[in-house]
Design goal:
three-stranded mixed β-sheet, six-stranded parallel β-sheet, 9 strands, binds zinc ion, alpha/beta, 343 residues, TIM Barrel
């Protein structure tokens, strides 16, 4: 990116009411078949318009074509049984009914590549595409086949790599892997999680990012956050190894997150997507509040490596609130950009 402090969002944005019930995760589609295909494209166009009108620099599909950031990808794979679901605890936090791995997992055809081509055709701005990370994928399933979290993560990493290479060929500038599980399973992250992530990104020439957050603003997550104490030091466990990894960008939650900002020092050298918008509240930040978080981050990230962002996805918020937050992000980044450039 040539522009200083380029803004982007961590991932999902609200869907239009005619496509899926708003302010809800896993919201079922209201359209079917060909209408659904066209409806998703229209929603993607609207989401893109919301982002560009707000002044966001690196745009995305707003995840308009998927029901959920992990399960929609998994639904397209062979070897996963969606009929016989089991209840498991996700990230040691909340119960969810999830599909199971019943045989070797395979990606027989691309999952998001057509959607990415469509987004590419709609804009000349840099585009970012989010995929689930291998560790977060295995945590959203039960496994009746590999019987090893590490083995299954490795298989998913290979599949993600195939998809990522095709997304790159479709013109995606940044491929982001969402790994909220990196904030929970520290030993596994260091034993094999980062290696699996690097396998997913192997050979890519476009930029790569990993998004590590404290989750959507849903009750299970906000309840969990209350147990974490005044200082959230989870990032400290995984940053040293991540700093040495081949991933270019690390996307973090910094607004209202109780994460000590100085932890960012541990990934010095990486580009950092600094979450300066809280997705767990309906209160729209002021540009000055956003600027304040970015100024604090600048003590630990070089200005040319700081990418202002949201803490996480905004799918569960209303469109009005999400759009307000997008504008606050762009305006807050502009304040700090002017300070740096002395204009
Ligand atoms: Zn997130």
């Amino acid at each position: 990116m040539k522009k200083l402090l380029p803004t982007s969002t961590a991932g999902s944005l609200p869907k239009p009411v005619w496509l899926a019930e708003p302010e809800k995760l896993w919201s079922p589609w209201k359209l079917q078949d060909e209408q659904l295909v066209l409806g998703k494209q229209d929603a993607l166009r609207l989401s893109l318009l919301d982002q560009t009108q707000a002044g966001i620099d690196i745009v995305s599909d707003g995840e308009q074509t998927r029901q959920h950031f992990v399960t929609t990808f998994i639904e397209h794979l062979h070897g996963v049984d969606f009929e016989n679901r089991k209840t498991v605890k996700i990230r040691n936090r909340y119960d969810a009914s999830v599909p199971g791995v019943v045989s070797a997992v395979e990606r027989k055809k691309p999952v998001f590549v057509e959607d990415a081509k469509f987004l590419r055709s709609q804009t000349d701005q840099p585009i970012k595409w989010a995929l689930p990370g291998p560790m977060t994928m295995i945590d959203t399933l039960y496994d009746d086949h590999y019987k090893s979290r590490e083995k299954l993560a490795w298989e998913f990493a290979k599949i993600l790599n195939e998809e990522a290479k095709e997304l790159e060929a479709a013109g995606v500038d940044i491929i982001q892997f969402d790994e909220p599980a990196f904030n929970v399973f520290f030993d596994e992250v260091n034993d094999w999680g980062i290696a699996a992530l690097e396998r997913a990104a192997e050979g890519l020439k476009c930029e790569t990012a990993v998004h590590i957050c404290y989750g959507y603003g849903i009750k299970a997550n906000t309840d969990w956050k209350k147990t974490l104490g005044n200082e959230w030091r989870q990032y400290e466990e995984v940053f040293p190894k991540l700093q040495k990894s081949s991933i270019d960008i690390v996307s973090l939650e910094c607004m209202n997150s109780h994460v000590p900002m100085e932890l960012i020092e541990l990934i010095r050298g990486k580009k950092v997507m600094v979450g300066a918008i809280d997705v767990a509240t309906n209160t729209v930040e002021t540009p000055e509040q956003v600027a304040d978080v970015l100024r604090k981050a600048l003590q630990f990230v070089d200005a040319d490596k700081l990418y202002p962002c949201t803490n996480c996805g905004m799918a569960p918020l209303s469109k009005e609130v999400a759009n307000g937050k997008l504008r606050a992000l762009a305006a807050g980044a502009e304040i700090v950009r002017k300070e740096i450039l002395g204009t």
